[in-house]
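Worked example 2:
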Amino acid sequence: MGARQAYSMINCLAYVPLCFFGIIALFVRIIAVVAVNPVIIFIGLFICAETLAITPPRHYPAFLLGLTPVIADWARGTIINGVAVAYLNLTLPNVDFAQNVTLRITDFSYHGLANLAGGSLLQCILITAIFMYMIDRKFIRGAVWSLLASLLSFFGLIHSSNLGVLYNKTDDGWRFTVGYAMMMLLFILCEIAQRRKWIEGPESEPDDLSSEEWHEWNRMQQLNKES
């Protein structure tokens, strides 16, 4: 639809007063949630379809991988909320029910699910960007995004449900920090190899095009190949 960064900025400016002055809560009381959810789902599906329409096929893995954190966040919330509501009357008062339940989940790695769900929206952006630049062989940009992910992990903004400096032995934040730092180092080594012509150069496709501009650019590329 041609929207770019300004669209997100306008959304931000519109939602700030709605949230700060409690207008969203008023809307929720007046409008039934079941009436709003189908609209949100439709808009989400439309955005995904629009994104895929202008996304080169080589970026599909990054696009799909970038959806996993929000899916994990939904799964974590469903597990905790669903079980908590079902067994609310069977629990003791003043007990951290969510923690007691998660400690007894052994059929799958709930701990890993919780790590993937922490800061899910930020993770979506970071994971998608890192893998897109990896696919495009733009290693410096990938290193910058990996460094950003490393810092956010260390302070608990992603891969964690707790904010703070996560450096204790029982924390996972520093582990993800080390992992992203190693990825950054790998990107730097790949950049050196690319400059020595050991690795193919980066993709030449332009960034930040609207859907119409991208289709026109892609059409011209196809015509050039045919000629």
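The chain is about 70% helix and 0% strand. The chain has a mean pLDDT of 82.
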